[in-house]
Amino acid sequence: MSDIYNQLVTAINRGDKKTERQLVAAYFVSDYYTLSNKEDGKIGGIDYFYADKKDDFTAYAQNEYYKKNQSYVSLPEVVRYDILSNTSSYKALSGLEDYSYYDVEVQITFKENNPILNATQYITTVTLIEKDQKFSVIAMESDNG
To answer: How much is the pLDDT for 66?
Structure first.
């Protein structure tokens, strides 16, 4: 995670928007799906979620992925990510249609089988808004069927 963060800081400093949005998506997904380093009640990646939607996302996470983690001895850990695509998005938040949106498809690999997802690899699409000179996550969708 620190490697992704350091690359993100470099991309921001260089003004490399494409790399920046890829790394925001990668950091968010990697932190969200890694449970091995979380204290009770902490939702991974939440700092990168769009501020006005954080409460909704937190409620969703606590009732879905994070609800199921209590009973596992070996908690999932993301060890690798691959960016599969990075394109403009058709999605937009109501009232914020004039901003730029992007869909970044990320494949993550777990250290061992993730018992919650029953997978060692997982693909998800992260939708980002570019607002106030930064990228924030507004949605995440599974691409695994």
So the answer is: 86
